[in-house]
Amino acid sequence: MRLSDQTLAALPDAVARPTYNREALTAGIVHIGLGNFHRAHQAWYLHRLMQSGKAQDWAIIGAGVRAADGAQRERLLGQNCLTTLIELDPAGMSAEVTGAMIDFLPVAPDNSPLITKMTDPAIRIVSLTVTEGGYFVDPASGGFDAAHADIVHDAAHPGRPRTAFGAIIAALDLRRAQGTGPFTVMSCDNLQSNGDVLRQTVLSLARMSDPALADWIAAECSFPNSMVDCIVPATGTAERALANGFGIDDAAPVTHENFRQWVIEDDFCAGRPPLEEVGATFCEDVHQFEAMKLRILNGGHQIIAAAGDLLGIETIAQTMDHPLIRRTLRKIVEQEIAPHVADVPGMTPLAYLDLIDRRFANPEIRDTTRRVAYDGSSRQPGFILPSVRDGLASGTPISGLALISAIWARYCLGTREDGTPIAANDPNWQALTDLAKEAASEPGLWIAQRQIYGDLAANPVFDTAFSGWMALLHSNGVEAALARYLDL
C-alpha cells in the first residue's frame, strides 16, 4: 500500500501510525539535511510528543542545499512527508509511521525558498544534519576555513548564498530588519562541541560581509551543544523490501537500532518543545556525554570499518564476528581511549564499551563497513586523533590508534586485500588515493597532511608507530597487523 495521509487508516494493525491530526500541525522547525538519521532521531522525538497531544506547533519543514536533495524532496512529498521507521531489534522487528514533518522546501541554487521560510516568525529553531565534515572547519587548527570557495562566494553574495550557513545568516538579517527576532540554530551532527562549532561557522561567515549583523547574531541567537546517538543504516533495496513486508510501499523508509540518546544543552532563545518528556536529556554541559560517545562509539566505528572493508566484510555486525577485529576494538578502547574519557551519570567508559559491543554486533542492523568508513578525512581527526593527542600528552599507549590510522591510509589505496576495487569513499578520495600510493614506501608523507594530522607528523612516538604499522600492512596485510597488535 502506497504510503500517504489517505492510506494511514488502512495500514496493517501491527504498524503504529500518527494519532494526531496532521492537518492541524503548524511548523516551528526548519531542518536542513533530511537524511535517515534525522528522521530516525530528532523527527521521532517530535513525533512522540505529538502522539501525546503536545508540540503541535513544532512540526518540521525539511530543506536541503544540494542539488541531490531535490530527489529526496520528491520522494518524501510523494508520500506527504511520512516516514516508515523499522526498528531492528534482535527480539523482533517492528514498524511505525511518523508524521512530524509536514513539508519539504524547493531546492534552489540561491536558497531563496529556504531563506523565506526561515524568515517566518513561527520558525523558532533551525536545525542541521550536514555531516561532521560540513562546517568549514580547518581540522589542523580547529578554526574557520574562510578560504573555501563556497564561503568566499557567500561572503561576496550574502543575498544569494550557496551554503546552509549563508542562508541562515540571510534569514537572520531579514528577521533583524523586520523585528521578528532570532531563532535557535542547532546542530544534530556527530561533532564534538557541535553547537560551538556551528556558532563559529555562522559568526565567522557573517563577519566577512556584515560585522554588525554578526554582533547581533552573537547577542541574540543561541547555539546549543548536543550529543546524538542512534545507529541508522543507509536505505537501499533491502530496506524498502522490509517496509513492503509490513504492507507499506515507502520510497524512503528508515531502519534503525533499538537504542536512541539525545543530550542537549538547554539554551534556546525562542523556546523549545518539551523533549525531556519523551526521553531527551537536558543539561548545562553535554561535553562529557559527547566525549564518551564520539571517542568510543564513533571512534570504535573507525577502528573496525576500514579494516573490515579491506578484508571483504560487508557489515559492521559481521566485523564483530571476526575475532581479531573485535578484540582489537576492545583493547584499543580499554587501553588507549577510555583512560581519557570521564564517567557520565549512570555510565562508565568501560560499561559504555560493553554497550556498543552489543550494539555493533546486532545482526539485524545491516550497517555497511563502507558507509561507516566514509569520509575518513573528517572522521579520523574527529574521532581518532583526539585520543592520540591525549595519549601522547599523558604517556599512555597510542600504538593501536596509530594502527587504525595506518589501516585508513591502506584503505585509501582503493583496493581490498583480495584485489577488488574500493569505489570512491571520501570527498577527497582521488587526492588521498594518489598520496596513499606514495606513502606505501614513504609513510611520513601521509601524516604530513596538516589539514588532517596537524603537527602529529613531528611527534616521534606517533611517527614511529604509524610508519611501523604501514610497513607491516603493506608487507603482510591487515590480519597480520591486528594479530601483532594484540600480541603486544
From TrEMBL:
UniProt entry tagged with the keyword Oxidoreductase: yes
Residue ranges annotated for the Mannitol dehydrogenase N-terminal domain, each copy included: 28-276
Location of the Mannitol dehydrogenase C-terminal domain: 285-463
Classification via Gene3D superfamilies: N-(1-d-carboxylethyl)-l-norvaline Dehydrogenase, domain 2, NAD(P)-binding Rossmann-like Domain
Domain of life (superkingdom): Bacteria
Keyword Magnesium (UniProt): no
InterPro entries noted in UniProt: 6-PGluconate_DH-like_C_sf, 6PGD_dom2, Mannitol_DH, Mannitol_DH/Oxidoreductase, Mannitol_DH_C, Mannitol_DH_N, NAD(P)-bd_dom_sf
Region forming the signal peptide: none
Protein name from the UniProt record: Mannitol dehydrogenase
